[in-house]
Amino acid sequence: MNYNEEKWMTVEGVELLQEIGIKRGQVVLDFGCGTGYYTIPTAFVVGRSGRVYALDKDGDALDELMEKARKFGLSNIAPVKTSGELKTNLESNFFDVILLYDVLHHYYFNREERERLLKEIHRVSGEGGSPISVSKTHESN
Ligand SMILES: C[S@@+](CC[C@H](N)C(=O)[O-])C[C@H]1O[C@@H](n2cnc3c(N)ncnc32)[C@H](O)[C@@H]1O
User: Fold this and answer.
1) Is 140 helix (H, G, I), strand (E, B) or coil?
2) Edge to edge, what strands does the sheet with 77-81 contain?
3) pTM of the shown model
4) Which residues of 40-78 are buried (b: 16+ CB within 10 A; e: fewer)?
5) Which residue's C-alpha comes closest to atom 19 of ligand 1?
6) Which of 33, 65, 88, 94 has its C-alpha lying 20 to 30 A from 59's C-alpha?
7) Which tens digits make up the pLDDT trace of 26-41?
8) For residue 33, how far is its CA from the centre of ligand 1 (angstroms)?
9) What is the 3-state secondary structure (H, E, C) of 1-38?
10) Is the predicted pLDDT of residue 141 greater than 50, yes or no?
11) pLDDT, tens only, 88-138
12) Percent of the chain as helix, strand, coil, to the nearest 5
């Protein structure tokens, strides 16, 4: 991990996620987490009393993410490997916040799949839960 990535994970990303309203103690789902670009700073924000569920269909990306979590001493990330199905085994009304960073776009999902994914996101969101979807490349973050 280079200096810039480490600074993002521990400082800049933490500030951004706090600014968008993520709080200590919350339970967050990072759907399509990849290698943890948002998962790791989210885990710092929610702290030991919170939890981040890192879901992806890419097992190698999840392994890389968990390696980073170990390096940072984070024990509040739960990896969730799926086969890409849009109906998950996650509990209903469970999450305070759901992140969909750089996921909810036509490269991965056609219109009908996006609708099904949003229904699933709604099912697992707690009361007042807020899905946050941003389609940006990392370079422009
Ligand atoms: C462009 S990457 C974004 C990763 C991360 N959110 C970020 O911003 O760095 C999109 C991720 O979504 C995952 N993904 C795409 N479709 C998925 C599906 N149906 N179920 C689970 N993960 C999916 C991909 O494996 C990939 O890791």
Assistant:
1) helix
2) 77-81, 51-56, 27-31, 95-101, 125-134
3) 0.92
4) bbbbbbbeeebbbbbbbebeebbeebbebbeebebebbe
5) 84
6) 94
7) 999 999 999 999 999 9
8) 6
9) CCHHHHHHHHHHHHHHHHHCCCCCCCEEEEECCCCCCC
10) no
11) 999 999 999 999 999 988 899 999 999 999 999 999 997 766 666 665 444
12) 40, 25, 35
User: pLDDT at position 128, please?
Assistant: 66
Ligand 1 pocket test, pick from 37, 65, 103 with the greatest ligand atom count within 8 Å of Cβ, gives 103
Domains and CATH numbers, the chain: 3-83+95-140 (3.40.50.150)
CA dihedral 61, 134, 83, 52 (to 10 degrees): 70
Nearest CA to ligand 1 atom 3: 102
Q: What is the DSSP letter of 119?
A: H
Report pLDDT for 127: 73
What is the reported pLDDT for 37?
97
